[in-house]
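Predict the 3D structure for this chain.
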Amino acid sequence: MKNLKKMFTLRIRQLTETKGFTLIELLVVISIIGILASLTLVSYSGAQKQTRDTQRRSDLNQYRNSLENYAGSNNGLYPLGINTIANLCGTGKPLTTSYIASCPADPITTYLYGFYSSSTGDGYVIYAQLETGGYWEVCSIGKSGKVTVKPTDSSCDL
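Done. Predicted structure below.
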C-alpha cells in the first residue's frame, strides 16, 4: 500500500510539472509559422501577376480576331494609320460592335494596351506590357510572343 501511494504521488508530481510549453518552444513555433506565411504570400503574389498576364494575352487575341474580321470585310485592309487602342475600338471607330462585342481593357489600370497600324493598312502590331517583364506582341503576320522592348511602330519585332 505504501508503494502504491508513492507511485501515485510521483505520477501526480510528473503531471503537474510538465503542464505547458517553454517560452523558447513557443517562439520557435511562432517563427516557423511566420516564415511559412511569408513564403505563401510571395508565391500568391507571383501567381496573381501571371494570371493577369494571361488575361492580357487573351485580350490581345480578341483584338486580333476582330481585326481579322475587319480586314475580311474591307478588302484585306486593316484600319489605317491608327496609333492608340483608344482610336481603334468603340462607337464611330473601326472596330464597332459588329466586329467585337466590347473592347477589352487591361486587368489593372497601371498597364495599358498599345496599337500601331500601317498607313497603307497592310499591317498592325498590338502589344501589352507584362507584369512579369517585357511586352507581349501580336502581329498582323500571325506571330505573337514576348519581346523585351516596347514596340514603336506597325512592324513586327518577332
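The beta strands are 113-117, 124-129, 135-139, 144-147.
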